[in-house]
């Protein structure tokens, strides 16, 4: 846990236990079916590794990060560990500021428990929606093995994959391989580009270091945001209880539409622009590879792609939309679309070898403007046609 004058600012253990307590287990499967799904996902992940390497031409210098097939609580544990590691410098700043405030320790004692519960609620919500993820930052532990450099692991969330394949009514074996192709591309990105993890971490730490708001205040705003989601928005999902008059939601503060907006200084906006461009590249590249390899190895890829895209665009409920708005995740779909358009356009003009020059160094990563205008990146980097 991160401590503040002897008291945690965020009770991470409470966040994990809260999420475990309220998270639904997922679709019903027998013990044998569960074992079969886990085994198949591991086989598909191993097969996807060679498919992705052959299609992209990207090779890792050392062993790949491990593949962990997890349930929803397992996903929560991995991500809480990652958040705790990333936020450690920010928590240290909070400790220094609160140490000089009379009564600061007592306030932190209460706040850590409240924040822990709220974070657990949020992680529970997200844990039912993620199919897979390359978890980058949590240090390796016996319970959470990582890459040989100390971090990084590919997570495949088995119950969510089964849930979506049933919801879409697609061929399960094809869908599982299709998902693995996307996630394996992320694992390959970090394995083949050794500087990428440190670059991303450096950008995130620079973003947090530039925060001009007291970290405790940010935590309070975070709690308020999650309370809004778990209260008003969830009530709207169920409908107003009998006898209770429906009240209009409070108007948002001017210019404040997400948590990201609450912490942006001019310097942070610059960093966020770069991070958005990198994430668009990584997500778009994974979608491009998935669609490029898919027709060769996934017989029903066209049906899966059509149904999954429609789900992305129209499947979000009111609570999903509220969460995306509050956390600044509403641009996620655009990142997939714009990033894939960038990758496709560069590969068409310069070939795969030319596109792969994007991985040379942080200086060859596309800017936010170049993501929207691939020709500008080609003109700047001038990759050799391949």
Automatic annotation (TrEMBL):
Keywords: Hydrolase
Keyword Cell inner membrane: no
TM stretches of this protein: none
InterPro entries named among the record's database cross-references: CHP03883_F420-assoc, Zinicin_2, Zinicin_2_N
Molecular function GO terms recorded: hydrolase activity
Biased segments, Basic and acidic residues type: 231-247
Keyword Transit peptide: no
Record region (Disordered): 226-259
Database matches in NCBIfam families: DUF2342_F420, putative hydrolase
Protein name per UniProt: Putative hydrolase/uncharacterized protein, coenzyme F420 biosynthesis associated
Species, as recorded: Streptomyces aidingensis
């Amino acid at each position: 846990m991160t401590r503040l004058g002897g008291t945690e600012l965020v009770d991470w253990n409470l966040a994990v236990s809260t999420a475990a307590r309220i998270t639904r287990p997922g679709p019903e499967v027998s013990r044998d079916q569960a074992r079969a799904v886990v085994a198949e996902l591991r086989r598909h992940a191993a097969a996807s590794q060679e498919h992705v390497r052959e299609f992209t031409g990207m090779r890792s210098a050392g062993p790949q990060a491990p593949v962990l097939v997890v349930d929803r609580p397992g996903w929560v544990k991995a991500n809480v560990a990652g958040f705790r590691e990333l936020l450690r410098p920010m928590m240290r700043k909070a400790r220094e500021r609160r140490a000089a405030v009379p009564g600061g320790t007592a306030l932190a004692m209460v706040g850590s428990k409240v924040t822990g519960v709220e974070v657990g609620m949020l992680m529970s919500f997200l844990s039912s929606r993620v199919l897979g993820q390359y978890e980058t930052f949590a240090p390796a532990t016996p319970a959470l093995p990582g890459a040989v450099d100390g971090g990084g692991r590919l997570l495949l969330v088995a119950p969510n994959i089964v849930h979506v394949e049933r919801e879409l009514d697609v061929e399960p074996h094809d869908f599982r391989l299709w998902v693995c192709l996307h996630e394996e591309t992320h694992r390959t990105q970090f394995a083949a580009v050794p500087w990428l993890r440190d670059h991303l971490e450096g950008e995130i730490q620079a973003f947090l270091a530039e925060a001009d708001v007291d970290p405790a205040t940010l935590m309070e705003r975070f709690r308020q945001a999650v309370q809004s989601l778990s209260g008003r928005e969830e009530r709207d999902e169920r409908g107003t209880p009998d006898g209770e008059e429906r009240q209009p939601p409070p108007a948002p503060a001017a210019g404040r539409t997400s948590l990201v907006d609450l912490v942006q200084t001019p310097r942070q906006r610059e960093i966020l622009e770069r991070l958005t461009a990198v994430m668009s590249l990584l997500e778009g590249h994974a979608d491009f590879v998935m669609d490029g390899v898919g027709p060769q190895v996934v017989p029903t890829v066209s049906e899966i792609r059509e149904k999954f895209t429609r789900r992305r665009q129209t499947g979000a409920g009111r609570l999903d939309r509220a969460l995306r708005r509050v956390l600044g995740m509403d641009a996620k779909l655009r990142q997939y679309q714009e990033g894939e358009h960038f990758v496709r356009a560069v590969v068409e003009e310069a070939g795969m070898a030319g596109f792969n020059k994007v991985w040379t160094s942080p200086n060859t990563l596309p800017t936010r403007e170049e993501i929207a205008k691939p020709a500008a990146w080609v003109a700047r980097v001038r990759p050799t046609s391949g």
